[in-house]
């Protein structure tokens, strides 16, 4: 299968591209810079120059492929305005890709996030939130899944709060960056809230399985660790960086503070059973031992 991939040079995307190539697929990947194009070529894929905002380029990539995996997102969480801009940009991109695929029966795998459900771990049948700081992402991926009624084998791989590799990535990576900047390895509240996690290489396998096997309109959970306490995550970060570990105000984490403070464990039991997906790489707490002081 020839697969068009957006976000193919990021932490997750580079792993997905390698996973696809290692399993007999060919890849056409969006490249927004010369450096990205070179990285894509070095990986063994073909670059398509353009940015996520270039909707005509996205349509061209989808038209030239047997399937699409969308991963690109501008992770600028510095202010509510920049976050809103990133969410709107992604929504427009998903709509353009989806329209190009209507009536083709080709697979379209979109990235999403695991939802938070009060009192229990979320499961694949739970809806994603459509309000709050990133509610627009939930509305966009819900529209993608709705394309299943228009001749698109659309599905969503829901990523947990931390997708990691070699101690970096995701919410835990943001905690690390903030700790380096502030001199405190902080956590909101009492730190008992739980975050799910997955290694990037395990997530990449699930994206491939969803592309190859996922039925139209389905959602899958790329969750290896159902929920690590944020205090435990911060403790490892503090030890690796030689910094004190303390509770800090949620405002420390900017527009994501509300999300950082919520308890949001998630299960992947159905995904593992239905797609025979089994995570094999280090857990988050193990992987954080790779953080360099």
From TrEMBL:
InterPro entries: Epimerase_deHydtase, NAD(P)-bd_dom_sf, NAD(P)-dependent_oxidoreduct. It holds the Pfam family Epimerase. Residues 3-73 form the NAD-dependent epimerase/dehydratase domain. Residues 118-137 are annotated as: Disordered. CDD domains: SDR_a7. It comes from the Bacteria. SUPFAM superfamilies: NAD(P)-binding Rossmann-fold domains (SSF51735). This is SDR family oxidoreductase. The lineage of its organism: Bacteria, Bacillati, Actinomycetota, Actinomycetes, Kitasatosporales.
């Amino acid at each position: 299968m020839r697969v068009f991939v957006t976000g193919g040079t990021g932490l997750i995307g580079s792993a997905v591209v390698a996973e696809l190539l290692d399993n007999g697929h060919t890849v056409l990947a969006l490249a927004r810079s010369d450096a990205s194009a070179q990285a894509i070529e070095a990986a063994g894929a073909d670059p398509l120059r353009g940015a996520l905002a270039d909707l005509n380029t996205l349509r061209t990539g989808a038209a030239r492929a047997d399937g699409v995996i969308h991963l690109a997102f501008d992770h600028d969480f510095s202010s509510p305005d920049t976050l809103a801009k990133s969410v709107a940009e992604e929504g427009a991109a998903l709509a353009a890709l989806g329209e190009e695929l209507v009536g083709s029966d080709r697979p379209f795998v979109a990235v999403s996030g695991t939802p938070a459900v009060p009192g229990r771990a979320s499961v694949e049948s739970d809806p994603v939130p459509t309000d709050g700081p990133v509610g627009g992402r939930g509305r966009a991926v819900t529209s993608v899944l709705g394309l299943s009624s228009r001749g698109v084998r659309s599905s969503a791989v829901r990523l947990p709060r931390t997708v990691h590799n070699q101690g970096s990535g995701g919410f835990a990576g943001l905690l690390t960056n903030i700790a380096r900047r502030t001199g405190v390895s902080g956590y909101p509240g009492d730190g008992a809230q739980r975050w799910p996690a997955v290694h990037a290489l395990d997530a990449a396998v699930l994206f491939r399985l969803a592309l190859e096997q996922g039925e139209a309109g389905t959602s899958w959970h790329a969750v290896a660790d159902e929920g690590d306490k944020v205090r435990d995550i911060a403790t490892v970060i503090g030890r690796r960086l030689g910094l004190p570990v303390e509770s800090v105000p949620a405002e420390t984490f900017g527009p994501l503070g509300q999300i950082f403070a919520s308890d949001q464990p998630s299960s992947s039991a159905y995904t593992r059973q239905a797609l025979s997906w089994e995570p094999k790489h280090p857990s988050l707490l193990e992987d954080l031992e790779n953080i360099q002081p």
